Amino acid sequence: MSEQAVRDNLVKWGKSLFERGLTAGSSGNMSARLDDGFLFTPTNSCLGFLDADRLSKLDASGKHVSGDAPTKELPLHFGFYDQRPAACAVVHLHSTYATALSCLSDVDPADAIPPITPYVVMRVGQVPVVPYTRPGSEAVKPLIDALAARHPAVLLQNHGPVVAAASLDAAVFAIEELEEAAKLAVILRGMSVRHLEAGAIAELNQHFKLK
Ligand SMILES: O=C(CO)COP(=O)(O)O
Ligand SMILES: [Zn+2]
After folding, report:
1. Active site includes 132?
2. Disulfide: which of 15, 138, 148, 157 matches 83 by Cβ 3.0-4.6 Å?
3. Does the keyword section mention Zinc (predicted)?
4. Mind listing the pLDDT tens digit for each residue in 4-45?
5. Which residues, at least 6 apart from 210, have a Cβ–Cβ distance to it below 8 Å?
6. Strand partners of residue 181
7. Helix axis angle, 96-103 relative to 168-187, nearest 10°?
8. Which of 3, 119, 132, 203 is catalytic?
9. CB of 153 within 8 A of CB of 119?
10. Is the CB of 68 under 6 A from ligand 1?
11. What is the distance between the alpha carbons of residues 195 and 201, in angstroms, rounded to a whole number?
């Protein structure tokens, strides 16, 4: 994909996510790996109204080289890029149900999303909760570094979901699936839910390797 195509794809998905209410106001951010660096959404920008020419470009060492100032969540995104060489995009949203789950005190911090449908297993796997840090804090980096090699998706406690994947399309599909699974988990709370069996999960993990 050319750099221009990646820029246009970030604008397209930002608009789509915003218009479907998957992140509000200037919340959320996205990035994509390029051959010679990275593109990030600018800080305080609304994902619904991104300008392809003003996206923040960073070189391969993480230095800002052009466009508006990048998201304050660079340490969050670089945690995933550093630990997952095949990751070419990271998406962070404040989507309602995944954020709701991230606020619940009785959710298993090692496994926040119950394996109730095959797609959540296929797209995001087991999702840990990352202890709370201030948005934009450098303190999130070591926490992500410790998890990202094993987990392409996490919930930031009391904040929202983050997903890395091999392409921007795949990262968006995965974070949408995470939001849907979180919605089901919240709707089904207190009900007697049938979980996928261990053998079914193992079969999915074998057929659909997460990148
Ligand atoms: O969601 C956000 C912080 O967690 C939005 O921050 P930015 O506007 O800096 O990208
Ligand atoms: Zn955020």
Report:
1. no
2. 148
3. yes
4. 999 999 999 999 999 999 999 999 999 999 999 999 999 999
5. 123, 124, 125, 152
6. none
7. 60
8. 119
9. no
10. no
11. 10
Cβ of 43 below 6 Å from ligand 1: yes
Could you tell me the distance, in angstroms and rounded to a whole number, from the CA of residue 93 to the centre of ligand 2? 6
Smallest CA-to-CA distance from 3 within 63, 69, 58 is with 58
Neighbour tally for 115: CB within 10 Å: 18
| Nearest CA residue ID for atom 3, ligand 1 | 135
Domains by residue range for the chain, with CATH: 3-207 (3.40.225.10)
Ligand 1 neighbour 48 (Cβ under 6 A): no
Q: What token pair was written down for 200?
A: 């079914």
Alpha helices by DSSP H, listed for the chain, are 3-19, 74-83, 96-103, 118-123, 140-147, 168-187, 198-207
In whole angstroms, what is the distance from residue 178 CA to residue 92 CA? 12
Q: Report the complex ipTM.
A: 0.99
- In this structure, the residue with its CA closest to atom 4 of ligand 1 is 135
Nearest ligand (C-alpha, residue 137): 1
State the first-to-last Cα distance of the chain, in angstroms, to the nearest integer: 18
3 is catalytic: no
Q: Which atom of ligand 1 is nearest to the CA of 45?
A: 8
| For residue 211, pLDDT beyond 80 | no
Find the helix or strand (DSSP H, E) in which 162 lies: strand 160-165
